[in-house]
Design goal:
alpha+beta; 5-stranded mixed beta sheet; binds heme C; Immunoglobulin-like; Cytochrome Bc1 Complex, Chain D, domain 2; 10 strands; 10 helices; binds copper (II) ion; 3 domains
């Protein structure tokens, strides 16, 4: 066997084995996650249809090319057919082939149009959740229940764990078999809330509301990520949705309301908190809300986020310090925290800033001071 022949045979073998192992591409690991809602199942089916049509076309075209290469090669002395254009096929193939291609295109476009129509459906929903993206966390507001959940990256997952950068402190809990409407917006830059198994993706844009919907049909935990490059912390805003039965959902909602009422009562009570208590709460809150930019050490990132350790604001006049946290600094990444944290939480964080990392002002502030400054 000639050397060329050997190479050729090996090539054929490689192509054949690739083609026959194609079903491997359908293996979960390499594919979209298994859909768990009607709308994502439609999208998934569309994706599979397109992939299989493309695969079939590839096999047919590659087959014809290989057949022509082998059978009509010059070394075999093949004489080109100079009369091809006079045959029936020669006359009509220029119209026939595009017609076939168009037919295939329409078979895909037809179902795609239907799915796109369903995506844009605005039917009434059972549960409406406003999803707000911020650098770098998600805020979920249950519009019918007056409940707000802030969801931050779970920083306790080590890098060698599967859930590294994929877990959060507070999950978005949703009922199965209910129509859920998501209202998407953002407070600072573009973000995109995307959980491929249960929801499709639309951008979260400051000042605009985008709408998506889903009906989750399987209980479970579904994970996603911010899908719009939103700055240095883009990788640190994962999404975790927990879908539970409607009965469990109602129970969970009741529990949340009780806990929220208790937290509100605690925050607005006239209790005078001592510094140690505030420091303890403040450290936790600082690490979830502020450390992404100002760093857990308070050192900030020089040139980007100012250090709070030794900061003239954190060491200076209390009312100015409170003011900057409540109002933020317009035009910078320093957001207003007035609507994000309650009086007690703000008093705790501010007290912590003023007494951590060697900032030894020794003073503290009370929820009542924050309330007065609002
Ligand atoms: C998304 C990033 C980001 C987050 C999160 C953030 N900050 Fe800031 N912060 C900034 C930036 C940027 C500035 C500088 C603003 C300016 O240019 O004046 C700043 C300024 C400050 C200052 C003034 C410091 C100085 O010396 O001028 C304080 C105090 C402060 N932040 C406290 C907080 C607290 C408390 C939190 C959490 C509740 C927080 N920040 C969360 C970005 C952030
Ligand atoms: Cu984002």
């Amino acid at each position: 066997m000639s050397k060329l022949r050997q190479v050729f045979n090996r090539g054929l073998l490689l192509i054949a084995s690739t083609l026959f192992s194609l079903p491997a591409f359908a293996v979960r690991e390499y594919n979209l996650p298994e859909p768990a809602s009607t709308i994502t199942r439609e999208i998934y089916d569309l994706h599979m249809l397109t992939a299989w049509v493309a695969t079939a076309i590839m096999i047919i075209v590659t087959g014809i090319i290989l057949y022509a290469l082998i059978n009509f090669r010059k070394s075999k002395g093949y004489q080109p057919d100079m009369e091809f254009n006079h045959t029936w096929f020669g006359r009509w193939s220029w119209a026939l082939v595009p017609a076939i291609v168009l037919g295939i295109d329409f078979s895909i476009a037809g179902s795609a149009t239907e799915t796109l129509g369903n995506i844009e459906s605005h039917d009434p929903a059972d549960v409406t959740v406003k999803v707000t993206g911020s650098q770098w966390k998600w805020t979920y507001e249950y519009m019918d229940d007056d409940l707000k959940i802030v969801s931050n990256l779970n920083k306790d997952i080590p890098a060698d764990n599967d859930l590294y950068l994929r877990d959060v402190d507070n999950r978005l809990v949703l009922p199965t078999n209910k129509r859920v409407r998501f209202l998407h917006t953002a407070t600072d830059v573009l973000h995109a809330w995307w959980v491929p198994a249960i929801a499709y993706k639309k951008d979260s844009i400051p000042g605009y509301i985008n709408e998506t919907w889903t009906v989750i049909d399987k209980e479970g935990v579904y994970r996603g990520q911010c899908a719009e490059n939103c700055g240095t912390g883009h990788a640190f805003m994962p999404i975790v949705v927990e879908a539970v039965s409607p009965a469990k959902y109602d129970e969970w909602m009741k529990g949340q309301k009780v806990a929220m009422a208790a937290a509100m009562a605690e925050a607005s009570s006239d209790k005078i908190w001592d510094q140690a208590e505030l420091m303890e709460r403040g450290e936790k809150l600082y690490n979830t809300s502020c450390a992404a930019c100002h760093m857990p050490t308070g050192a900030g990132i020089p040139g980007v986020f100012p250090a709070l350790k030794g900061s003239p604001v954190a060491l200076g006049d209390m009312s100015k310090h409170i003011d900057i946290i409540l109002k933020g600094v317009a035009g910078t990444a320093m957001a207003s925290w007035a609507n994000q944290l309650n009086d007690l939480e703000l008093a705790a964080i501010i007290t912590y800033e003023r007494n951590a990392w060697g900032n030894n002002t020794g003073d503290s502030t009370q929820p009542a001071d924050i309330k007065a400054a609002r």
